[in-house]
Amino acid sequence: MARTLTAGPERTNRLLLIGAVALAALAAVLVFLSLSNFGGGSKDKAAFSGSTADVVVATRDIKAGTKITSDMLDLATLPVASVLEGAVTEKAGLVGLTARYPVLKNEQFSPAKLGQTEADKVFANVIPPGKRAVAIPVTENTNVAGFIVAGDRVDITAVTRGLNAGGTASTVLQNVLVLAVGQTAAKATTRLDANGTPIPGDNAGDLASRPDNTDPNAKARTLTVAVDPNQVPVIALAQEQGTVYLSLRPPGDESTQPSAANPQTLPGQ
């Protein structure tokens, strides 16, 4: 009878002890999970879930001012938490760019590391791909009183005179990009998109930006434009046979008029 009376309290104490240990373990797990989530951002969650991303890294140390070649680039798969903000994710387009700052082996590329050095900012770099730069003699009369600046777009009209007293005028080229007025040229730049890929040159002249000085220059004697290779002879012939006039387009106007190319004469001629 005595054993029966004492077994109850001992069993109760044992169960209480086991319950306390279980509660303590559960509390420890909850505290750990709480601390793990406290202050954790999306990158921490991505890293915990094992998410990865491909980024471009350097295969060797690259000095500032070095032209980037294909053998300097490689793709590496890294945890999302280790990917730098704005890291370049594709190798296409990086070849030929210049490292503005040193890039270490296995370091990720970012737009801030890329671009052109001052030595690379030569006039040839403002010419859009597939175009040619051609200079046209101008005066204050043919150059819209000197208000045309690099980065503007113009139409080119040629006035020619025949053997008789009359003459003809026709717009030989439309929507032509102006690269320079006198010695004041557009500035060479390399613009990158969100992925760090260079934006190719197009009709908007993405390879260049306006010069710092955009004041009118009525004293300029030449104006340099970007044209297709097969348009170079047209400008040369227009200069040899008559006078070339430039008309200034408003920003964003890229329209063309087919009838503008038709030769025009004065009434009665």
Characteristic terms for this protein:
disordered N terminus, alpha+beta, 269 residues, elongated
Outline the fold blueprint:
Blueprint lengths: L1 H36 L4 H8 L2 E7 L14 E7 L18 E2 L14 E2 L16 E6 L15 E9 L5 E15 L2 E2 L1 E2 L19 E2 L12 E6 L4 H10 E7 L21
Antiparallel strand pairs: 1-2, 3-4, 5-11, 6-7, 6-12, 7-8, 7-11, 9-10
Helix and strand sequence: HHEEEEEEEEEEEHE
Alpha-carbon distance between the two ends: 141 Å
Main sheet characteristics: 6 strands, antiparallel
Radius of gyration: 35 Å
Low-confidence stretches: 1-6, 38-48, 199-206
Tell me what portion of residues adopts beta-strand conformation: 15-25%
Whole-number mean pLDDT: 76
Which shape, going by the Cα principal axes?
Answer: elongated
Proportion of residues in helical segments: 10-25%
Structural class, please? alpha+beta
Please count the helical segments: 3
The overall strand count is 12
Structure description:
This protein has 269 residues and is an alpha+beta fold. Helix content is 20%, strand content 25%. The protein is built from 3 helices and 12 strands. Strands 5, 6, 7, 8, 11 and 12 form a 6-stranded antiparallel β-sheet that branches. A hairpin with a 2-residue loop joins strand 7 and strand 8. The longest helix has 36 residues, at 2-37. The chain is elongated.
